[in-house]
Specification:
Blueprint lengths: L4 H8 L2 H10 L4 H5 L10 H18 L1 H12 L3 H22 L9 H17 L14 H18 L1 H19 L4 H8 L3 H6 L3
Helix pairs in contact: 1-2, 4-7, 4-8
């Protein structure tokens, strides 16, 4: 808007050049939503749940990102490939942090996250076409149904981790009763000294 075609081609070269510059302004969208911090084991489920719901809410509000996702599906070119790969790199550290809490379970959290996020993408970018599973996701009440469903799915996803954490709490409590040094307990369980002190013996 407000520039001639000559200036446009001087700046961007061609339409694909313009789109590449434009998509770079959107590249850190997911990274900004999932602001990284290393959550404690007691916080990991709420961290994950909040991140996924925030992802859905942000996508609902951001038409540009919706269009970018549609473009990535519809057209395989250097710009869409780079955009998708960079988005993967932006969340790689977060997935590694989350995955470690499932190390002693049979839960493939990466595959389940892919299905959950992919379902959110599809539900939102197609919501103006028609209802989906009989639900009109274009109104606030239906969006609340979506958020509650996400919460339920995440609760189920983290059940093995919650059970595992309960077992660790019981072990820590027993070790504290036997007078084992907190630093030794921390080395064996991966918990912080503060977390160990907060567990009743």
């Amino acid at each position: 808007a407000g520039i001639t075609s000559k200036v446009f081609y001087q700046w961007f070269g061609d339409l694909e050049g313009f789109l590449e510059v434009y998509t770079k302004t959107l590249d850190y969208w997911m990274n900004d939503i999932l602001e990284y911090r290393s959550p404690k084991k007691t916080e990991i489920k709420e961290y994950y749940k909040t991140a996924i719901i925030q992802l859905a809410k942000s996508l609902m509000e951001n038409k540009s990102i919706q269009q970018l996702l549609i473009w990535e599906i519809a057209d395989k070119n250097s710009v869409t490939r780079r955009s998708k790969k960079l988005r993967e790199l932006n969340v790689a550290a977060k997935m590694e942090s989350i995955e470690q809490w499932f190390a002693h379970t049979d839960v493939d959290v990466r595959a389940r996250t892919a299905l959950l996020v992919g379902g959110i993408y599809y539900t939102i970018i197609t919501r103006e076409l028609s209802e989906f599973c009989g639900i009109n996701f274009g109104d606030e009440k239906s969006n609340e149904r979506l958020f509650r469903a996400i919460e339920h799915i995440v609760d189920k996803l983290f059940e093995p981790v919650s059970t595992d954490h309960k077992s660790i709490q019981e072990i820590v409590s027993a070790l504290k009763q036997k007078g084992i040094d907190p630093t030794v307990i921390a080395e064996c369980t991966g918990l912080s000294i503060k977390e160990i002190k907060d567990i009743n013996s």
